[in-house]
Every structure is written in structure tokens, then in C-alpha cells.
């Protein structure tokens, strides 16, 4: 069996473990109320206002773990459970998304780079695998290589995403401690939630790199391609 295919399986298993860890950690601390009794929406609003970002809205969005910051709409969108919940998990996630809003307001370079790379990553994600498979099926290696090069954009986007997400989590912990939202006993649980969430981005990058290596092996870029 191809070594790169085994690598893909290993990355897939690791990704499942990380998703399990995130969901288990999030579920655990979603049942633990923070000492201030503040909801995710209230925490987000307080941190935004403290940074002069009164124009940034805080809105609920359907689903679970669908929390994100929309730089176009200038809105922090929290999943409905986190928006209304006074849990430690909601507090950590809300602060993280506000971290992105502060990055945007301060012109954080990596956030801008990621935004510029998004169209490339979107094209690569949608068309890269298709072109690789079609090219291999038709024996058109040039087309398959084009698909591989397009898919490289996905990995580059995910690589740039890492400093953006880690910095947002760092900012989140700083906000929460400086503004007195966390007691000393709550720092560890909040950090756990953010660390597991960050690992999902590491797993996504590893998965893309493994896929690229697999496509490259199919194209014979590491030696003779087996027919």
C-alpha cells in the first residue's frame, strides 16, 4: 500500500480524535457556568465596547460551533447555544471571535493575507481534486498537475490560518483575564476549549498536505507512477 495513502489514513484518524476531543471538552464546559454568569453575547459585547468597536454587531447564528467573525458585515456571529449560554465554553468562544474583530480593526497582517488567499483556496478546494482525477482518468497529466497546483492553494490558506487562529486565542485569554471575566480556576478550562479548537486547524492543514502528497505520488512526482 502506498505510504502516502497510509499517511492520509493516519491523518484522518488523528482528525477524528481531535474532533472528539473538541466536542467532549466543549460539551463538558458548556455545562459549567462562568462565575460572572454572563452569556457569550454579553461577554462579546463588553470586550468589543472596551476596544471601541461599538459598531461591530453581535448576532446569533443557527447551529453548533458555527461561531465566526464576518469582516465584511462587521459582525461577531455566535452559535445560538453560545450566544445565550453563560457557560465557560461560551465565554471562551465569544472572546476568541472578538479576537478576530480586534485583529480586523488593528489591521493584523495575517488576517489580511488570509482574506486575500480565500478566493484562491476556494477555487483549489472545488476544482483541484476534480482536475486531478479527471486528468488521471484521461491520461492528461498536465491537467492533473494543474489540479494539484490549484489544491496547493488550500494548504497555503490553511497554513496562513494558523497564526490568525492562535493569535485570536491568545488575545481571547488576555481579554478574559484583564477584564476580570475569569477566576484563577476558570483559566485552565477556558484555555482547554481554545486549544482543542486550534488543533482542528492544525489537523485540517495536515490533511491537506497528506492529500497533496498522495496526489503527487499518483502523478509519479516521487518516481515512476504505477499503472
TrEMBL record:
Entry keyword annotation includes Membrane: yes
Keywords of the record: Membrane, Transmembrane, Transmembrane helix
InterPro entries on file: Zn_peptidase_2
Origin superkingdom: Bacteria
Transmembrane domains' residue ranges: 6-26, 117-142, 193-216
Name by which UniProt lists this protein: Metal-dependent peptidase
Taxonomic source organism: Thermus aquaticus (strain ATCC BAA-2747 / Y51MC23)
